[in-house]
Design a protein that fits this description.
Heterodimer of LeuC and LeuD. This protein is an alpha/beta fold. Helices cover 33% and strands 19% of the residues. The strands form four sheets. A seven-stranded mixed sheet has the order 13-12-18-17-14-15-16, sandwiched between helices. Strands 4-3-2-5-6 form a five-stranded parallel sheet, with helices on both faces. A four-stranded parallel sheet has the order 10-9-8-11. Bound molecules: 3-isopropylmalic acid (IPM) and iron/sulfur cluster.
Length: 415
């Protein structure tokens, strides 16, 4: 029987041929956690009396939510995790100066065909390279860390085809929001989305990462880009080796199919307070904006900063603007390319590698009555701070254009 990517990966990982609906035990290739959930993962391991890991090389830990620690409790949590790392001699530990877990997984560890579990919902991000990547609760991750195994119900595979080339200011976010607007946030429950890109180079890894990242906002069990030349090039360029790839078989069966013509997309936003309250930028243009956030594991990559820098070059922002590349490596690259200088000269506050304001933690929490335009993943009530603030999710072009004008702005004005 021809197999989908989902079936192929889960068949390999479980050691038997699987079909949608099967509940199987699978071997994990990577189990990961960050500071905020790591605390609970370790607590579960301690309570179970099993403070051990199945394979040191396959555990990845990063400090991002509480990086650098905004309060004493956060500092304590990080100290405790550092102790765990030292005692168990975990090599793949990334302290506060490296980046957001999902970006680190993408840059350094995720490979096509891998099964990745991490104690964070946006683990789906690694689907950008064709990994079956799922966020799990702390107890399930603790079990995977100890045993190297987890269980899954094999999801129903859904096929999405991306055709054509995106226009100048269109980015992965517009594709994610298009899917969310057309299907609504709970549609893909129990499904895995497999995305085929007709012209691989037209939809680069940064864009793919944004869409995979928001797979969890679509409630999908996984969102994977079918590995192609772009996947191989990305891994080769970043890590110096050519990965093994895995692709669905010809004739594999999907529950449904849907095609997006990238050339026809326009800049989209998700208006408060849900990710599927999707509108075109023109429908909300002109609304006053207090703060703009360009960053997060959703849209804090080089192409996001490139787009923002193009719009902000030689100008000055009218609203507050906080910009955070998702990792130290991305920050350095953005610095070399002059994007950081451009953003700083435009009046943005720039740092790197923290979740910061994305979940209202620190580094620019939204105040009562404020309107935020954010390139991050969620706009639920109170997500970025006050319950009385409003968050509009958008790609970097809408975010930068809005910062510049101090109100929601169509970036196509800057063409
Ligand atoms: C704190 C963490 C558990 C959470 C998640 O799982 O996604 C956070 O990263 C988020 O984006 O809301
Ligand atoms: S950047 Fe935001 S979405 Fe990503 S892991 Fe951090 S809090 Fe979650």
């Amino acid at each position: 029987m021809p197999q989908t990517l989902t079936e192929k990966i889960l068949s390999r990982a479980s050691g038997k041929s699987v079909a949608p609906g099967d509940v199987v035990e699978v071997k994990v290739d990577i189990a990961a956690f960050h500071d905020l959930t790591g605390y609970h993962v370790i607590e579960v391991m301690e309570k179970a009396g099993m403070l051990k890991v199945f394979d040191k090389q396959k555990i990845v830990i990063a400090f991002d939510h509480l990086a650098p620690p905004p309060d004493v409790r956060s500092a304590e949590i990080q100290t405790q995790i550092r102790k765990f790392v030292k005692e168990l001699k975990i090599p793949n530990f990334h302290d506060i100066n490296v980046g957001i877990l999902h970006q680190i997984l993408l840059e350094k560890y995720a490979n096509p065909g891998y099964v990745i579990v991490a104690a964070d919902s946006h683990t789906t991000t690694s689907g950008a390279v064709g990994a079956f990547a799922q966020g799990l609760g702390a107890s399930d991750v603790a079990a995977a860390v100890i045993t190297g195994k987890t269980w899954v119900m094999v999801p129903q595979p859904f096929k999405i085809m991306l055709e054509g080339k995106p226009g100048k200011w269109i980015n992965g976010k517009d594709v994610a929001l298009k899917i969310l607007g057309d299907f609504k946030a709970d549609y893909f429950n129990g499904m895995s989305i497999e995305i085929f890109v007709r012209e691989p180079s037209a939809f680069p890894m940064d864009f793919r990462a944004t869409v995979s990242n928001m797979g969890i906002e679509m409630n999908a069990d996984a969102l994977m880009f079918v590995p192609d030349d772009e996947t191989v090039n990305y891994i080769k360029t970043n890590r110096g080796y050519e990965p093994n790839t895995v692709r669905p078989d010809e004739g594999a069966k999907y529950v449904d199919e849907y095609t997006i013509d990238l050339g026809k997309l326009e800049p989209l936003v998700a208006a408060p307070h849900s990710v599927d309250n999707v509108k075109t930028v023109n429908e909300v243009e002109g609304l006053d904006v207090d703060q703009v956030f360009i960053g997060s594991c959703t849209n804090g990559r080089i192409s996001d900063f490139e787009i923002a820098a193009k719009i902000l070059k030689g100008k000055r922002v009218k609203s507050r603007c906080i910009a955070i590349p998702a990792s130290y490596d991305l920050f350095k690259k953005a610095m070399e390319l002059g994007y950081i200088e451009t953003l700083v000269n435009a009046g943005c506050i720039v740092t790197y590698g923290t979740c910061g304001p994305c979940l209202g933690g620190h580094f620019g929490v939204a105040g009562p009555g404020e309107t935020i335009v954010s390139t991050s993943s969620r706009n639920f009530k109170g997500r970025m701070g006050s319950n009385d603030s409003k968050v509009y999710l958008a790609g970097p072009a809408v975010a930068a254009a809005s910062a510049l004008e101090g109100k929601i702005t169509d970036p196509r004005r800057f063409s």
